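TL;DR need structure tokens for one chain.
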Amino acid sequence: MKKINIMPLDIQRFAREGAETDIYNGVKLSYKKKSETNYTRIYGLNEVPDIGGEPNTVSTTNLDNLKYETEKQTLMPVQKYNFGFDLENPALDSNIYLASKLEDSGEIVEWKYDLDNGIVITFESKVRTTILGGKTGELKKFTMHLNPEKEPTRTITVPTGE
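>> reply
TL;DR here they are.
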């Protein structure tokens, strides 16, 4: 019988030493109308979308390929951002009221999605909302659907030497 040595797996060994990661708590979604200079934050954010994605591809496979298909990357798919919120009771500064007013206006506003670690995504979009169904004991929620009119901008600020 062959003896097999089992070594404990230290997953920290595979992480870059000194690398810091963070949780999503603290991210912010804010907007400003074209006539405004300051952003207005919408509170109650509880779910954020993926930003970016896998690019579309076009096949480059031909009859010379004998084992694998080949392809080239092309454009990214259309970006559709669905942000989830806890639905606040209606008030002039409540998230559902602000989102509904933006939806009703039909205007394109500038959005700033701030991951609070130096990564900020900005884009322009109209607003659509969905008030979600639920069941006994669940919080009321809604989703704000944002589809950028132009390509989003990603800014990554890194700390400089101290």
